[in-house]
Amino acid sequence: MRPDNLSHLAAFAAVARHASFRKAGAELTLTTSAISYAIRNLEERLGVVLFHRTTRSVSLTEAGQRLLERLEPALLDVGEALEEMNNFRATPAGTLRINMPRVTAQLLLPRLLPRFLARYPDIHFEAVDNDGLIDIVALGFDAGIRFLEQVPEDMIAVPMGGEQRGACVASPEYIAKHGVPAHPNDLFQHDCIRFRFPSGRLYKWEFDQGTKKLELDVRGRVTFGDLRLALDAALAGIGFTLVLDEQVTELVAEGRLVRVLDDWCPPYPGFMLYYPRQRRVTSALRAFIEFIREESPIAA
Predict the structure, then answer these.
(1) pLDDT over threshold 50, residue 298
(2) For 33, phi and psi rounded to 5 degrees?
(3) What is the value of pTM for the model shown?
Protein backbone atom coordinates (compact mmCIF):
# COMPACT_ATOMS: atom_id res chain seq x y z
CA MET A 1 0.00 0.00 0.00
CA ARG A 2 1.32 3.45 -0.88
CA PRO A 3 2.04 5.60 2.20
CA ASP A 4 -0.63 8.16 1.33
CA ASN A 5 -3.36 5.57 0.69
CA LEU A 6 -4.39 5.35 4.32
CA SER A 7 -4.71 9.12 4.70
CA HIS A 8 -6.81 9.30 1.53
CA LEU A 9 -9.05 6.51 2.78
CA ALA A 10 -9.45 8.32 6.11
CA ALA A 11 -10.42 11.47 4.20
CA PHE A 12 -12.96 9.45 2.19
CA ALA A 13 -14.52 8.04 5.37
CA ALA A 14 -14.69 11.50 6.96
CA VAL A 15 -16.42 13.03 3.93
CA ALA A 16 -18.88 10.13 3.86
CA ARG A 17 -19.55 10.52 7.58
CA HIS A 18 -20.23 14.26 7.41
CA ALA A 19 -21.55 14.51 3.82
CA SER A 20 -19.32 17.57 3.64
CA PHE A 21 -15.78 18.27 2.48
CA ARG A 22 -15.52 21.27 4.83
CA LYS A 23 -16.62 19.34 7.94
CA ALA A 24 -14.36 16.43 7.04
CA GLY A 25 -11.47 18.87 6.83
CA ALA A 26 -12.36 20.30 10.24
CA GLU A 27 -12.36 16.80 11.76
CA LEU A 28 -9.00 15.89 10.24
CA THR A 29 -7.52 19.39 10.68
CA LEU A 30 -6.98 19.69 6.92
CA THR A 31 -8.04 22.34 4.45
CA THR A 32 -11.03 21.73 2.20
CA SER A 33 -8.72 21.76 -0.81
CA ALA A 34 -6.54 19.06 0.77
CA ILE A 35 -9.62 16.89 1.31
CA SER A 36 -10.74 17.48 -2.28
CA TYR A 37 -7.28 16.49 -3.55
CA ALA A 38 -7.33 13.29 -1.49
CA ILE A 39 -10.76 12.26 -2.81
CA ARG A 40 -9.90 13.13 -6.39
CA ASN A 41 -6.64 11.20 -6.16
CA LEU A 42 -8.42 8.18 -4.66
CA GLU A 43 -11.09 8.20 -7.37
CA GLU A 44 -8.46 8.39 -10.09
CA ARG A 45 -6.57 5.40 -8.66
CA LEU A 46 -9.71 3.32 -8.29
CA GLY A 47 -11.20 4.43 -11.61
CA VAL A 48 -14.65 5.03 -10.07
CA VAL A 49 -16.62 8.02 -8.79
CA LEU A 50 -17.17 7.78 -5.05
CA PHE A 51 -19.34 10.86 -4.44
CA HIS A 52 -22.18 12.69 -6.16
CA ARG A 53 -21.26 16.37 -5.82
CA THR A 54 -23.39 19.46 -6.28
CA THR A 55 -22.93 23.00 -4.99
CA ARG A 56 -25.29 22.14 -2.11
CA SER A 57 -24.80 18.49 -1.29
CA VAL A 58 -22.39 15.55 -1.19
CA SER A 59 -23.61 11.95 -1.24
CA LEU A 60 -22.11 8.53 -1.85
CA THR A 61 -22.41 6.75 -5.16
CA GLU A 62 -23.17 3.03 -5.16
CA ALA A 63 -19.45 2.34 -5.47
CA GLY A 64 -18.71 4.76 -2.64
CA GLN A 65 -21.26 3.10 -0.39
CA ARG A 66 -19.76 -0.33 -1.06
CA LEU A 67 -16.25 0.94 -0.31
CA LEU A 68 -17.42 2.56 2.92
CA GLU A 69 -19.08 -0.65 4.13
CA ARG A 70 -15.84 -2.58 3.60
CA LEU A 71 -13.56 0.19 4.81
CA GLU A 72 -15.13 1.23 8.12
CA PRO A 73 -14.34 -1.98 10.05
CA ALA A 74 -10.74 -1.87 8.78
CA LEU A 75 -10.26 1.77 9.80
CA LEU A 76 -11.76 0.97 13.20
CA ASP A 77 -9.25 -1.87 13.62
CA VAL A 78 -6.39 0.46 12.68
CA GLY A 79 -7.62 3.10 15.13
CA GLU A 80 -7.88 0.55 17.93
CA ALA A 81 -4.42 -0.81 17.16
CA LEU A 82 -2.94 2.67 17.40
CA GLU A 83 -4.93 3.39 20.54
CA GLU A 84 -3.52 0.28 22.21
CA MET A 85 -0.09 1.89 21.95
CA ASN A 86 -1.28 4.48 24.46
CA ASN A 87 -1.32 1.73 27.06
CA PHE A 88 2.47 1.84 26.94
CA ARG A 89 2.60 5.58 27.62
CA ALA A 90 3.10 7.00 31.09
CA THR A 91 0.16 9.39 30.64
CA PRO A 92 -2.95 9.28 28.41
CA ALA A 93 -2.70 11.06 25.07
CA GLY A 94 -4.69 11.71 21.93
CA THR A 95 -7.58 13.86 20.78
CA LEU A 96 -10.89 13.78 22.65
CA ARG A 97 -13.89 14.94 20.55
CA ILE A 98 -17.12 15.64 22.45
CA ASN A 99 -20.45 16.98 21.22
CA MET A 100 -22.48 18.99 23.73
CA PRO A 101 -25.25 21.60 24.05
CA ARG A 102 -24.14 25.23 24.10
CA VAL A 103 -25.26 25.66 27.69
CA THR A 104 -22.90 22.86 28.77
CA ALA A 105 -20.00 24.57 27.04
CA GLN A 106 -20.90 27.79 28.86
CA LEU A 107 -21.53 26.38 32.35
CA LEU A 108 -19.37 23.29 32.85
CA LEU A 109 -16.30 23.61 30.66
CA PRO A 110 -14.91 26.84 32.17
CA ARG A 111 -14.60 25.23 35.60
CA LEU A 112 -13.69 21.67 34.56
CA LEU A 113 -11.52 21.97 31.46
CA PRO A 114 -8.55 23.91 32.91
CA ARG A 115 -8.02 21.30 35.63
CA PHE A 116 -8.42 18.42 33.18
CA LEU A 117 -5.90 19.85 30.70
CA ALA A 118 -3.46 20.62 33.50
CA ARG A 119 -3.63 17.02 34.66
CA TYR A 120 -3.30 15.52 31.16
CA PRO A 121 -0.98 17.73 29.06
CA ASP A 122 -0.83 15.24 26.16
CA ILE A 123 -4.61 15.23 25.54
CA HIS A 124 -6.13 17.56 22.95
CA PHE A 125 -9.75 18.46 23.75
CA GLU A 126 -12.17 19.33 20.93
CA ALA A 127 -15.71 20.43 21.85
CA VAL A 128 -18.47 20.99 19.30
CA ASP A 129 -21.50 22.77 20.72
CA ASN A 130 -24.76 21.77 19.10
CA ASP A 131 -28.24 21.85 20.66
CA GLY A 132 -29.59 19.27 18.20
CA LEU A 133 -29.66 15.54 18.86
CA ILE A 134 -27.04 13.86 16.67
CA ASP A 135 -25.53 10.43 16.13
CA ILE A 136 -22.16 10.82 17.86
CA VAL A 137 -20.85 7.56 16.39
CA ALA A 138 -21.71 8.42 12.79
CA LEU A 139 -20.16 11.88 13.13
CA GLY A 140 -16.92 10.65 14.66
CA PHE A 141 -17.27 11.87 18.25
CA ASP A 142 -15.83 9.95 21.17
CA ALA A 143 -18.66 11.00 23.48
CA GLY A 144 -21.56 13.39 23.90
CA ILE A 145 -23.17 15.36 26.71
CA ARG A 146 -26.94 15.62 27.09
CA PHE A 147 -29.63 15.43 29.76
CA LEU A 148 -30.46 11.89 30.85
CA GLU A 149 -33.74 11.63 28.91
CA GLN A 150 -31.89 12.55 25.70
CA VAL A 151 -29.21 9.85 25.98
CA PRO A 152 -29.79 6.93 23.56
CA GLU A 153 -30.56 3.63 25.27
CA ASP A 154 -27.52 1.82 23.85
CA MET A 155 -25.09 4.28 25.45
CA ILE A 156 -23.27 4.27 28.78
CA ALA A 157 -24.04 7.45 30.76
CA VAL A 158 -21.91 9.05 33.49
CA PRO A 159 -23.38 11.87 35.64
CA MET A 160 -21.57 15.14 35.05
CA GLY A 161 -21.80 18.36 37.02
CA GLY A 162 -24.43 17.44 39.60
CA GLU A 163 -28.16 18.13 39.67
CA GLN A 164 -29.77 20.96 37.73
CA ARG A 165 -33.03 22.85 38.14
CA GLY A 166 -34.99 25.24 36.02
CA ALA A 167 -35.44 28.94 36.71
CA CYS A 168 -38.39 30.95 35.42
CA VAL A 169 -37.23 34.56 35.43
CA ALA A 170 -38.08 38.05 34.25
CA SER A 171 -36.68 41.52 34.86
CA PRO A 172 -37.89 43.60 37.84
CA GLU A 173 -39.27 46.13 35.34
CA TYR A 174 -41.42 43.50 33.63
CA ILE A 175 -42.61 42.13 37.01
CA ALA A 176 -43.56 45.62 38.23
CA LYS A 177 -45.62 46.24 35.11
CA HIS A 178 -47.25 42.83 34.60
CA GLY A 179 -47.23 41.11 37.99
CA VAL A 180 -46.07 37.75 39.34
CA PRO A 181 -47.66 34.47 38.13
CA ALA A 182 -48.95 32.42 41.08
CA HIS A 183 -49.30 29.23 39.01
CA PRO A 184 -47.57 28.04 35.81
CA ASN A 185 -50.86 28.36 33.91
CA ASP A 186 -50.78 32.09 34.66
CA LEU A 187 -47.89 32.32 32.19
CA PHE A 188 -50.45 32.18 29.38
CA GLN A 189 -51.33 35.76 30.39
CA HIS A 190 -47.71 36.89 29.95
CA ASP A 191 -45.14 37.35 27.21
CA CYS A 192 -42.81 34.34 27.28
CA ILE A 193 -39.50 34.12 25.45
CA ARG A 194 -39.45 30.73 23.80
CA PHE A 195 -36.70 28.38 22.65
CA ARG A 196 -36.65 26.44 19.37
CA PHE A 197 -34.45 23.36 18.90
CA PRO A 198 -32.39 22.96 15.70
CA SER A 199 -34.93 20.31 14.62
CA GLY A 200 -37.57 23.04 14.50
CA ARG A 201 -39.44 21.82 17.57
CA LEU A 202 -40.45 24.41 20.14
CA TYR A 203 -39.49 23.61 23.73
CA LYS A 204 -42.52 23.16 25.97
CA TRP A 205 -41.90 24.57 29.44
CA GLU A 206 -41.83 21.86 32.09
CA PHE A 207 -42.94 22.35 35.69
CA ASP A 208 -43.13 19.84 38.53
CA GLN A 209 -44.66 20.02 41.99
CA GLY A 210 -44.78 16.63 43.67
CA THR A 211 -47.26 14.51 41.72
CA LYS A 212 -48.31 17.47 39.57
CA LYS A 213 -46.42 17.72 36.29
CA LEU A 214 -47.11 20.30 33.62
CA GLU A 215 -45.81 20.77 30.10
CA LEU A 216 -46.85 24.15 28.70
CA ASP A 217 -46.71 25.45 25.14
CA VAL A 218 -46.39 29.03 26.37
CA ARG A 219 -47.14 32.07 24.24
CA GLY A 220 -44.83 34.84 23.23
CA ARG A 221 -43.77 37.04 20.36
CA VAL A 222 -40.05 36.27 20.63
CA THR A 223 -38.37 32.92 19.94
CA PHE A 224 -34.65 32.12 19.92
CA GLY A 225 -32.48 29.12 19.16
CA ASP A 226 -29.94 30.13 21.80
CA LEU A 227 -30.64 30.31 25.55
CA ARG A 228 -28.14 33.14 25.93
CA LEU A 229 -30.24 35.30 23.62
CA ALA A 230 -33.39 34.34 25.53
CA LEU A 231 -31.68 35.40 28.74
CA ASP A 232 -30.60 38.72 27.22
CA ALA A 233 -34.19 39.32 26.12
CA ALA A 234 -35.45 38.68 29.66
CA LEU A 235 -32.88 41.15 31.02
CA ALA A 236 -34.17 43.68 28.50
CA GLY A 237 -37.68 43.36 29.97
CA ILE A 238 -39.35 41.51 27.09
CA GLY A 239 -40.91 38.80 29.27
CA PHE A 240 -40.36 35.56 31.16
CA THR A 241 -37.90 32.89 30.09
CA LEU A 242 -37.12 29.43 31.43
CA VAL A 243 -33.41 28.65 31.73
CA LEU A 244 -31.10 26.71 34.04
CA ASP A 245 -30.79 28.07 37.56
CA GLU A 246 -27.01 28.12 37.31
CA GLN A 247 -27.28 30.58 34.42
CA VAL A 248 -29.06 33.19 36.51
CA THR A 249 -27.75 32.73 40.07
CA GLU A 250 -25.64 35.89 40.00
CA LEU A 251 -28.21 37.88 38.03
CA VAL A 252 -30.88 37.08 40.61
CA ALA A 253 -28.52 37.91 43.47
CA GLU A 254 -27.75 41.26 41.82
CA GLY A 255 -31.46 42.03 41.45
CA ARG A 256 -31.31 42.13 37.65
CA LEU A 257 -33.72 39.20 37.35
CA VAL A 258 -36.53 37.89 39.57
CA ARG A 259 -37.28 34.19 40.01
CA VAL A 260 -40.92 33.10 40.04
CA LEU A 261 -42.70 29.76 40.49
CA ASP A 262 -39.74 28.50 42.48
CA ASP A 263 -41.78 25.73 44.13
CA TRP A 264 -42.57 24.38 40.63
CA CYS A 265 -38.88 24.01 39.72
CA PRO A 266 -37.39 21.12 41.77
CA PRO A 267 -33.92 19.65 41.12
CA TYR A 268 -33.55 16.91 38.50
CA PRO A 269 -30.66 14.77 37.17
CA GLY A 270 -28.24 17.02 35.36
CA PHE A 271 -25.97 16.48 32.37
CA MET A 272 -24.67 13.06 31.38
CA LEU A 273 -21.46 12.25 29.57
CA TYR A 274 -22.35 9.33 27.30
CA TYR A 275 -20.40 7.07 24.96
CA PRO A 276 -20.99 3.91 22.88
CA ARG A 277 -21.25 0.67 24.81
CA GLN A 278 -19.71 -1.44 22.06
CA ARG A 279 -16.77 0.76 21.08
CA ARG A 280 -13.32 0.54 22.68
CA VAL A 281 -12.82 3.46 25.09
CA THR A 282 -9.74 5.50 24.16
CA SER A 283 -7.22 6.43 26.83
CA ALA A 284 -8.20 10.10 26.47
CA LEU A 285 -11.89 9.34 27.02
CA ARG A 286 -11.11 6.97 29.89
CA ALA A 287 -9.10 9.74 31.56
CA PHE A 288 -11.98 12.20 31.11
CA ILE A 289 -14.52 9.73 32.53
CA GLU A 290 -12.36 9.17 35.62
CA PHE A 291 -11.86 12.92 35.98
CA ILE A 292 -15.63 13.59 35.76
CA ARG A 293 -16.37 10.95 38.37
CA GLU A 294 -13.85 12.54 40.71
CA GLU A 295 -15.07 16.07 40.08
CA SER A 296 -18.84 15.46 40.24
CA PRO A 297 -19.19 16.06 43.99
CA ILE A 298 -17.22 19.32 43.61
CA ALA A 299 -19.09 20.39 40.48
CA ALA A 300 -22.45 19.70 42.11
Answers:
(1) no
(2) -65, -35
(3) 0.68
